[in-house]
Amino acid sequence: MVLLLRSSTLKIAVYTANFSLYQLEDESAHLDEMPLMMSEEGFENDESDYHTLPRARVTQRKRGLEWFVCGGWKFLCTSCCDWLVNICQRKRELKARTVWLGYPEKCEEKHPRNSIKNQKYNVFTFIPGVLYEQFKFFLNLYFLVVSCSQFVPALKIGYLYTYWAPLGFVLAVTIMREAIDEFRRFQRDKEVNSQLYSKLTVRGKVQVKSSDIQVGDLIIVEKVDAFLIYFRHVYASSCFIRTDQLDGETDWKLKVAVSCTQRLPALGDLFSISAYVYAQKPQLDIHSFEGTFTREDCDPPIHESLSIENTLWASTIVASGTVIGVVIYTGKETRSVMNTSNPKNKVGLLDLELNQLTKALFVALVALSVVMVTLQGFVGPWYRNLFRFLLLFSYIIPISLRVNLDMGKAAYGWMIMKDESIPGTVVRTSTIPEELGRLVYLLTDKTGTLTQNEMVFKRLHLGTVSYGADTMDEIQNHLRNPYSQVSSQASGNNTSSTLPRKAQSSAPKVRKSVSSRVHEAVKAIALCHNVTPVYEPRAGMTGEAEYTEADQDFSDGNRTYQAASPDEVALVQWTESVGLTLVSRDLTSMQLRTPSGQILTYSILQMFPFTSESKRMGVIVRDESTTEIMFYMKGADVAMSSIVQYNDWLEEECGNMAREGLRTLVVAKRALTEEQYQDFESRYSQAKLSIHDRALKVAAVVESLEREMELLCLTGVEDQLQADVRPTLEMLRNAGIKIWMLTGDKLETATCIAKSSHLVSRTQDIHIFRPVTNRGEAHLELNAFRRKHDCALVISGDSLEVCLKYYEHELVELACQCPAVVCCRCSPTQKAHIVKLLQQHAGRRTCAIGDGGNDVSMIQAADCGIGIEGKEGRQASLAADFSITQFKHIGRLLMVHGRSSYKRSAALGQFVMHRGLIISTMQAVFSSVFYFASVPLYQGFLMVGYATLYTMFPVFSLVLDQDVKPEMAMLYPELYKDLTKGRSLSFKTFLVWVLISIYQGGILMYGALLLFESEFVHVVAISFTALILTELLMVALTVRTWHWLMAVAEVLSLGCYVASLAFLNEYFVCLGNVAFITTVTFVWKVSAITVVSCLPLYVLKYLKRKLSPPSYSKLTS
Hints:
It is a multi-pass membrane protein. The chain has a 9-stranded mixed beta sheet, sandwiched between helices. The chain is elongated. The protein has 38 helices and 33 strands. The protein is of the alpha+beta class.
């Protein structure tokens, strides 16, 4: 009976981890008095002499008005909203359940649909949700208030369209973009929810959609898409499943069918029995399950306990064959969905910084309006004048800022997807491309992300001789000789059987020794494992009743291997490649085929499976032809070094292979007599029957065999890395990005990949954080870690959870100082929690990259999530903000596109603000000259045209600007490091632009008033023409690399303005004197004002580049 969870339903999350933070009052008091040490000297002293480090930086809570002003109002609003949401959406209490086989209608409670939903909104919440997301930004909220004020006659200072048209355009663009993104999410969900599965009914098989699967249905499964209990395998009583999408572990898991249902003669009998499953309530733990199976229609009723071995979770894949299971949990109640966090609306750091600058501009706007009213002398209805001044100067805060930035983001996304160097890249969240240029922490999965999850046998070392990939043919020759002699002896007569002996005795003694050692080593590798060869039935054989052994195809091409570890499969595939092939295996025997075609049969007497505690596995076999009993064992070098006989090469060679990034296994053997084995078997059986300390007694009996074993060989297996992983990681490190590897795999595997991928350089030490279970152990281990300098940290998920419970701040602070961090045995929720801890404590931008369903929580929690479309499915890719096809593409995505997006948006944002500031400065000068009258300088079409037709194209063309070529950005990743400091957009650069705006606005307005004193009626045309020319020249001043579209935009905008002068003269010339605009006087005076406003800035820019050149200037020269 197998619990099946939908492998396709991992996108939505209904659970976010709620780890305990500092519990300052629990645990024993003496630990509170024992702070973490600060120095090496302190570690050597008594505990009372430890230097203190506070466990948490706890600030005193602010009270009263100070607390309210400093953010309390936001906390209160959020709390009220959460309370209302909880009232409206009460979560249904999760309960244990009784599920009848094949009868979903008998379920007492209503269970959630088995569908995924990645959409942020529904039909009713879309418009309110999008509007809320827009108006929570101060910029948009401010313009909404300003636009609404124009409905009040006393406050109206222009046409309604001058305010509502830009605002409406912004909202229309935003709603359209969100609608497109939402529709794409809907289509992706629909595609997944419409996948067809075979459902077993009384009438036979029927096809049902994934979303129509119900609790109680009997599903015929190949890929698990709901939570099932495993009832029956079509051909065997067990199967292997892959869980890498769920927990990140690459090991295949053995699952066992419920014996009662497996014994039924035919599939249809599942409906003829009266049986039900009682299952525990849905929970997060993916490593445990408790339930019972009951069959009522027999006397007495049959009861079987159910455990994790009888279940298939959603997001797992049946490795071979077909199984039948009953659905227990669906949709939101599956383990995979419960371990996934809710997707959030991500806002880029650049947007937040611009929002802060907008608030600063608003303060300046209010201050300027108050100054104008004060200079006016507060005469008449001064408060109305104050509001009119606020409206007159409202262009200080440009509404076009959001339009330009949003269009810029769309342009960056288009450029990323059209880049031929990173084919297949998809931008799924178009609002945060600039985040790719601000990253400090990259959190990556291992399996399928850094590695291909394909094991390849690389090295066999016998102590005196080593074989690599280029010398495997020698091993084949060594194997062919002994097996050919055995076969010839078996087939020949007495005379012929003596010939091989003569030939053998005349051969050199060393040659014989090496051949026999190679033979023994390969035979040990071929026998010591838990691999099962599987043969698929011949094409067309679909029924179960007609299936017989004769229908199987036993050819080599039809054979696949199943095992709990890909390492073991790689070893058995290698023995096949050198001539010794595993052809069959069951619980009691296995058969090998020699290079000459002979079949060797071995009885399996005992199996000792691999555990994380023992770090080794063993098997006792009897050769049926010779009745020889042999005990083979293989395991990690740390476990095997004390078991094998003395040698002087094992430790050194293990170190050499580990430095090459190979996963090592030590293989040993021990010959047993019949008496020795019988004695062991009796003691072993007795130990397994003991009630108390069974595990310890069994381990003690097995250890009695593990003495003075003969060391046969050392094997090296490589988990192949993704293409160009090493240079990509090196590039990211040079760019100042710290890389953390979060994986669900074992500690040894994770450490090995960290070395082979050069995540940890060869010169760096690795500190493996010992397992800790309580506060005291965590305290001592953290002190030991603090003494290490410049070393990578490797920590397991269990130890991490204990440390975070008591010493969260210290652990994160120490880990952030490490050049690399590896977290192994991490659950999906822990991965997301680590991301959130980095965001809280480090305050830097994080990026998560993964390819499996177990990475979705981490990807959604990070500031920027990147998914890889790989062998583990598309779940991570679909949930991510950016989707790539290979890990190496992240280099160009960050170094080129991320860097360019940020620098372009920073320049674009500041230039748009400059455009609003300069016209507001001119308005202030104009009002000051005319006795502080709240009269607009430019009206109607001019104000709309200034922000759109006349300057929009040149300003927006800044999204094509680049300071260095993409090739240079890839070659010198150090350029990326500067961006994390945020110098492209800061209060310093903002103030520079403010000063430029004040200078130019003052020059333009005063110049127009001075030069055109006799023709004052022409001041609008003169000042506005000079303003447009100044803006076009400023764009040219800002550009670093010209693109042909930039030149087109400049010429087009100038042409539009000249045409406006001719056809819209009523806006410019009060007396309709068009001839004046064409005079030489007009032209030279406008040119003079423009030159005075721009030339000093060109000179200053030239001097700055000469005296203080930017970091990229040497690369562009």
